[in-house]
Description:
By secondary structure, the protein is α+β, with helices and mostly antiparallel strands. Helix content is about 40%, strand content about 15%. α2 runs antiparallel to α4. The longest helix is centred in the middle third of the chain and has 18 residues, at about 90-110.
Amino acid sequence: MEAIENLITRRSIRKFKSDMVPKEIIEKIIEAGTYAPTGMNRQSPIIIAVTNKELRDRLSAQNAQVMGVNTDPFYNAPVVLIVLADKDMFTYLYDGTLVMSNLMNAAHAYGISSCWIHRAKEEFESEEGKSLLKSLGIEGNYEGIGHCILGYADCEEPTAAPRKDNYVYWVE
């Protein structure tokens, strides 16, 4: 029942303290991401764990540029887990999405706040993004799925919105 409670109580956080999450916890969150289901267990996604502030800030600036804003789209979170997936696998988008879900739910289980930040696709289609992958020794036909930002909340946890009336349809 604890797992179900974790799924129901997780919320996206958009204001973080600058305190770094311990590496041991980040590693456990990442491990949970690697156990997400993937089509035919081909494991098309990869995860890039960014705790280096300089690179984190560079990625934030690039993400803000894609979005057309002059703010930090990572909300001051000190950790960015970038999920990319191999476009040669026909289930890549779903595979990467499931990894993102596992990451966020695992973070919540460890008391770490998270949020899914978009625009990874655009970032890693750019020359700067391709250059970053190359500098990390990552080769392949990868598409950015999302950024899972992690950190300690610097705000109250939001209350869940009521579930809509027509969410589920039963056929008995």
